[in-house]
Amino acid sequence: MAEFSLGMNTSKEKAASTFNGYAAAGILLAAVLLFFWNIITLEPDAPSAFRGWLLILSGIAALLILPGFFMIQPNQGRVITLFGAYRGTDRTTGLRWIWPWMGRTKVSVRANNVHSERVKINDLRGNPVEIACNVVWRVSDTAQAVFDVDDYREFVNIQIEAALRTVGARHPYDDMSEEDETTLRGSADVINAELQAELNDRLRVAGIVVDEAGLTHLAYAPEIAGAMLRRQQAEAVIAARAKLVLGAVSMVEMALDKLSADGIVNLDDERRAAMVSNLMVVLVGDRDTQPVVNTGTLYQ
């Protein structure tokens, strides 16, 4: 599997210190009411310094509190920064509040489903094949996703294609030999598990976990598809013929043993070989046979 190093300190998610938004909303409401009460009850002919300062402070408090509200839905998080420095991630759902000069970047930690484009690769034997996959992934570390890669969604798409090429090049499309080896077409569970492990290894630097990965399309490239189809047809015919021959040999052996055991007829080696030949033609041939009735003796 591939090993990746960013050449920098890896970010690590931590909890952010934010405030309950409903409590902040109550303070905001009190500040607004105090502001308007001061305006309504202020005596313009004999203004009070205390009332004037109270009016200014309540207005500043309302303006300071209002921009700090934000909402977090289930399976979402907000990455909090202060002048570019990471201050934690808030995953508490509901209405929240933070100082307005602190940055808030929304990051979804829900599962994402990606169906890749078809990729043309060369398998272990150099045959061009088309391959595509479906990947279910999610963000596990919001700090890594936001700070350690530039665009984590684009990063996922690129690494999916790279992992497909890597895994596809490790195995042949099909088993052309007698050896029992892992193939792209015949070992789906093994290939899917290997693809998931490869993706998790590649996406770990972005704080992303792959929950499921599997091939959705696998075929020879069009330029060799016809030749490979003929090869598969030839292999199927050979396998069928081999099974027919084994069955025919067994039936011939059973017939000869039965004839000898019951004493129906005694055959010398020459006639025994002729009988075996005739029975094999009848049993293995792909056309109907035309029997020849011998009205003479056995040796005519």
UniProtKB/TrEMBL annotation:
It comes from the Bacteria. The chain crosses the membrane at residues 21-40, 52-72. The keyword Transmembrane applies. It is a single-pass membrane protein. Pfam families: Band_7. The keyword Isomerase does not apply. Gene3D superfamilies: Band 7 domain (3.30.479.30). It is found in: Membrane. Residues 67-236 form the Band domain. Its main location: membrane. Keywords: Membrane, Transmembrane, Transmembrane helix. Signal peptide: none annotated. This is SPFH domain-containing protein.
